[in-house]
């Protein structure tokens, strides 16, 4: 595993949010700059990448809609619970290579 700590935009500050639509980990300053551009981008769903996520209501898994999602798959653009993540990403070598992030900012790299 490797820790994704830098903002994908400025590459200097620590990433604090993951924008699902942009598939980007952003620091707070870049997140504010990018998502203030217009009404459309201001509505992008963004998930916290820091330890502060435990104090927030975690969104449900996009697949089962029953449990909280803790993994975000960039290729599937989906938020997944552990059970659904394992079920989907162990099927074959193509999907097992997907880039998945814990909402704490840890990327699973095979």
TrEMBL record:
Pfam short name (any one): zf-B_box
Record's subcellular location: Nucleus
Domain B box-type: 2-49, 56-103
CDD domains for this protein: Bbox1_BBX-like
The keyword Zinc appears for this protein: yes
Sorted UniProt keywords: Metal-binding, Nucleus, Repeat, Transcription, Transcription regulation, Zinc, Zinc-finger
Name of the protein described by the UniProt record: B box-type domain-containing protein
